[in-house]
Amino acid sequence: MNEVGLDALRDKLDNIDNELLKLINERMEIVHQVGVVKAHSGGAIYRPEREKAIIDRLESLNNGKLNRAAIEALFLEIFAISRNLELPENVAYLGPEGSFTHQAAEARFGAMSSYVSISSIKGIFREVDTKKARFGVVPIENSSNGIVTDTINCLNTYNLKIIAEVVLDIHHTLASTCDKIEDIKRIYSKDIAFEQCRKFLSNFGLDEVEHIPIESTTKAAKIAVNEPGSAAICPHVGAKLHNLPILFENIEDKDNNKTRFFIISDFENGQSGNDKTSILVTLSDKQGALVEFLTDFNKVNINLTKIKSHIVEGNSIFFIDFDGHKDDENVKKVLSKYDGNVKILGSYVKEINDI
Ligand SMILES: O=C(O)C(=O)C[C@]1(C(=O)O)C=C[C@@H](O)C=C1
Question: What is the CB < 6 Å shell around ligand 1?
């Protein structure tokens, strides 16, 4: 293409960008008014079900080059900026900076939100419970390592609500200042990351070197960059953040390694038409109690998507996910039978990327 053609096309793009800017600013004027209404009514700023309805509507109208993922990426960023304009809100995540939980938080709250790195799951619940942060982001399960018990324990103890789920594909890298694999004498990472990369470590003889478990994979990169002879198993972002050269990408054993995160806050979502609900259930010791519970759900056509047993202070409880919202008639009906034995943790828009 000659330069004249390129200049003309760029002029067109400039004009479109000018229009877009004008329209987005007009949108933000309205968003500001929504914020004022909510400030008076006390309504929650973040409404995932409304955001989903907007994206669904735009997808159905769309006849251009954008696909759903592109529409979602654009509009989730616009919503994040809108929410920040309505009321700047802190998001507490399981740190440090660059951790997978940080990435999950950024995926939902965008680049403009303010983030607080917290070093424990309990600390995040405390931060939201004491209203220092409006939202908390915590891991709940990984496809290779199962449920995160600290998160279940805190969901059981605190009266906070799950208001959204985020599922991230998890990829690990091996990063080090060593030029040769044989020079690596020790590796830093989180215990579960070592487990998720077992095959890779054994294939390269790295199961023989010292493995030092620490609380976060990103911190592993920070340590390894300053210690000759060491390496880190960490996220790509973590290695970049600490200028640690990446030797191998995607070293996890399973290529569909995913982690599911919950966003917690102190309000409840309305129905979106595509919801999931999480509950904790304590069942009596009598034989058949679990079968009866599952049958009751089946009778009212509720699809259970997850059931995990978990021990809290010597008692067995079940963590259960099912399709539907807590205010759906069939859900209300079945849960009323177990009143006192069920803790509703939250109803939230179901993610397409499941684990
Ligand atoms: O509709 C609302 O309740 C809004 O606050 C507006 C808006 C938006 O930008 O469209 C922003 C934040 C909410 O999460 C949902 C939608």
Answer: 31, 34, 45-47, 50-51, 54, 79, 82-83, 86
pLDDT of residue 311: 83
With a threshold of 0.90, tell me whether the complex ipTM lies above it: yes
Picking from 86, 118, 136, the residue at the C-terminal end of a domain is 86
Structure tokens given for 237: 């972002």
- Cα separation, 206 vs 172, in Å, equals 15
Instruction: From residue 113, give the alpha-carbon distance in Å to each of 59, 271, 350.
Output: 26, 26, 23
Instruction: Among 67, 86, 105, give the residue marking a domain's end.
Output: 86
Per the structure, the complete domain to which residue 40 belongs is given by 17-86
Paired tokens of 289: 């109690």
**Based on the domain organization, do 139 and 262 belong to the same domain?**
yes
- In the reported structure, the alpha carbon of residue 263 is separated from the centroid of ligand 1 by a whole-number distance in angstroms of 17
Count how many domains the chain has. Answer: 4
Residue 182 lies in a domain: yes
Q: Does one domain contain both 157 and 26?
A: no
The tens digit of pLDDT for each residue in 252-292 reads: 998 888 999 999 999 999 999 999 999 999 988 888 888 99
Tell which atom from ligand 1 comes closest to the C-alpha of 45. Answer: 5
CB count in 10 Å sphere of residue 228 = 10
| Closest residue CA from atom 9 of ligand 1 | 79
**pLDDT, tens digit (0-9, with 9 covering 90-100), for 21-79:** 999 999 999 999 999 998 888 888 899 999 999 999 999 999 999 999 999 999 999 99
Task: Tell me which of 158 and 216 has the higher pLDDT.
Answer: 158
- Residue holding tokens 């251009």? 64
